[in-house]
Specification:
This protein has 7 helices and 10 strands. The protein is of the alpha/beta class. The chain has a domain of 72 residues. The strands form 2 sheets. Strands 1, 2, 3, 5 and 6 form a 5-stranded antiparallel beta sheet that branches. A 5-stranded parallel beta sheet has the order 7-8-9-4-10, sandwiched between helices. The two termini are 28 Å apart.
C-alpha cells in the first residue's frame, strides 16, 4: 500500500533525458519529517517541484497526498496544491505590499478560509514566529532573514497538510531563529504537519528533523 503523504518508486528527475540522481524508493506517512539531502545541482529543487506538480520531466512513480502525478488532471493538481505550501526564493513576496497583505492574499487564494477568519489566523502565525512587529512593513523594506520568515509565515498560515522548504539558507535561519525550529516541530507533533526540507547540509536542525534523511546520490 502506498504511503499517505509521499510515495516514490524507482523515481528520479531528468535533465533532458538523463536521470540526475539514483532512483528513489521512498514511503512517507502522515506526520513525518523528511530531509532530502544533496549537494548543489543534485536535483533537490527539481524534486520539490515534481512533488507540487510543477516539473514533469521525471521517471518512475510518484504519489503525493493520495494523488498520482503520473499524470494528473488540472482539477486534481489544483486540489493538491491547495494542500501544500512551497517555501522557496522562486516564489517571492509581493514587494510593494505589506506583510499582512501578503499573508491575507495567500489565505484568500486557498479558497478554504472565510474572510472573517483571516485577521486572527495572520496574527497567530506572526506571533508564533515572533514577527508580529513586521505586520505593517512593506516587504521591499525587509532584511533577508525577515523576508525568509515572512515567506515561512505565508506558507504556514493556511495550515497546509504538507510544507516543502527549498532554500539554501534554511540551516542558517534555523540557527539564527530557534523559534522557527520550535514552531515547525510543534506543528508536526500537534497538527501532524508533514515537513520536507531540501538542503545541502543538516547543521542547525534539532534531532527531530532526522526522522528520515534521504540522500540524493548523483548519477
Amino acid at each position: 500500500m502506498a504511503a499517505d503523504v509521499l510515495s516514490l518508486q524507482k523515481f528520479s528527475v531528468l535533465r533532458n533525458s538523463a536521470p540526475i540522481f539514483e532512483d528513489l524508493d521512498v514511503e512517507l506517512d502522515n506526520g513525518e519529517i523528511a530531509v532530502f539531502l544533496g549537494r548543489q545541482s543534485a536535483g533537490k529543487s527539481l524534486l520539490a517541484k515534481s512533488i507540487i506538480g510543477q516539473y514533469s520531466n521525471i521517471q518512475g512513480v510518484i504519489k503525493v497526498l493520495g494523488f498520482s502525478l503520473n499524470p494528473i488532471s488540472s482539477a486534481h493538481l489544483n486540489e493538491l496544491r491547495q494542500k501544500i505550501a512551497y517555501v522557496s526564493p522562486e516564489f517571492p513576496l509581493i514587494k510593494n505590499k505589506t506583510v499582512r497583505v501578503n499573508l491575507s492574499l495567500s489565505l484568500l487564494a486557498s479558497n478554504r478560509i472565510r474572510e472573517d477568519e483571516t485577521d486572527l489566523m495572520i496574527q497567530q502565525q506572526l506571533i508564533a514566529l515572533d514577527i508580529e512587529h513586521l505586520s505593517s512593513r512593506i516587504c521591499s523594506e525587509l532584511s533577508g532573514s525577515e523576508d525568509f520568515l515572512v515567506r515561512m509565515a505565508r506558507g504556514l498560515v493556511g495550515k497546509p497538510r504538507l510544507i516543502l522548504i527549498d532554500d539554501l539558507n534554511i540551516h542558517k535561519m534555523v540557527d539564527e531563529f530557534p523559534l522557527l525550529d520550535t514552531e515547525l516541530i510543534n506543528l508536526n507533533q500537534k497538527d501532524k504537519l508533514n515537513l520536507f526540507v531540501f538542503c545541502s547540509e543538516t547543521r542547525g536542525f534539532s534531532s527531530s528533523f532526522f526522522q528520515n534523511v534521504i540522500n540524493l546520490v548523483p548519477r
